[in-house]
Amino acid sequence: MSEYEKILQEMRKLSYKNTELSERLELVIGENAGKIQRMKEDEEKLIAVLKDLTEEQTKNRDSELEKKEEERLEKERADEAKKQSDISVITNLLENKFQRSDDFVHKENVKVYRNVQAVVVDELKRYTESAQEEKNAINAKLGKVMKFSVISMLASIVSVVLWALMAAGIIK
Questions:
Q1: Helices (H), the chain
Q2: pLDDT at 30 over 80
Q3: What is d(CA 2, CA 99) in angstroms, rounded to the nearest whole number?
């Protein structure tokens, strides 16, 4: 029996050791369960914080995107306003250029009109002088013809008087 008692004693030792290990295991599990519970709570807190951060980042990103879009639209509006301003300036410049061009063309047209008028007046004077010279030349020729006609008429009258005297028998 001694062997039986040895085995029994060994079984008791093992049982005692098993109990001791079970108690330690329960203690370790208890300690670790608290740690695990705290870790779960920490994890939930971290998840909540991450969720808040993610939501905040999403809001910030959305806000930033909206801000960038507003800035882009504002820049486009400013560019459009600048283009309109540039177009207005260019239009005013063109209108001024056209006005100056019209004024210049008008002045040149007046100069040309006056030059043409001066040429016409000069030509008219030359034509009048030429016509006067021709008239004077014709009058001079006509004067000679008149003198010859007067002499011819006097000769005709003398001839008629002589013929009448001859017919009357006064002159033979």
A1: 2-168
A2: no
A3: 137
